[in-house]
Amino acid sequence: MEAKVCKFCAGERLDEVVNVLREAGYEVSVEGCIGLCAKYDCGRINVIAGEAEISASGMEELITHLKAMGMGQ
Predict the structure, then answer these.
(1) 72, 63 in Cβ contact below 8 A?
(2) Pick from 16, 69, 23, 70: which is nearest to 45 by CA?
(3) Which end is more exposed in the chain, N or C (fewer Cβ atoms within 10 Å of the end residue's Cβ)?
(4) The model's pTM
(5) Which residues contact 27 (CB under 8 A, 6 or more apart)?
(6) With the C-alpha atoms ordered 62, 18, 1, 3, is the resulting torsion angle positive or negative?
(7) Model confidence over 14-44: pLDDT tens digits?
(8) E-assigned strands of the chain?
């Protein structure tokens, strides 16, 4: 499966976000904008993982979303 990460939303957490997604089995691409910034609050980690849009306040919430989707650690 593929995942797209907004590099602007991930900010300083970009490397960690990419690593978590790869560990969950995704092929990750880092994009300039994936169009979720207008839908979700600033400062959130915005990811499109497969068909799902994920907007997480932090790494723990991102991992929780991935586990709920049946992906990840």
Answers:
(1) yes
(2) 16
(3) C
(4) 0.87
(5) 1, 2, 3
(6) positive
(7) 999 999 999 999 999 999 888 888 888 778 9
(8) 2-6, 27-31, 45-49, 52-56
59 — phi, psi (to 5°)? -65, -40
Asked whether 17 and 66 are in contact (CB, 8 A), the reply is: no
Which of 2, 25, 27 has its CA nearest to residue 71? 25
CA 19, chain centre distance (Å) = 10
CA distance 2 to 26: 5
Task: Look up tokens 């991930």; give the residue.
Answer: 10
Residue with tokens 């790869």: 22
Q: Which residue has the tokens 């994936």?
A: 34
